[in-house]
Amino acid sequence: xxxxxxxxxxxxDAKDLEKLKGKKKRADRVMEVIRENGLNKDKEFMDEINPLxxxxxxxx
Length: 60
Description:
60 residues, mainly alpha, 65% helix, elongated
């Protein structure tokens, strides 16, 4: 069995960290607009948009 190791943030340089923060900020803004327009209550829409947002956050 392997034991999960804690994430060492020291290996992430400042440039990468800022890029990650920017992506998170944009994704948060998209979710805010979705909520403002009531689209978060549309299950079909949310089922389609959530994987897209997650993929955006993963991209380099």
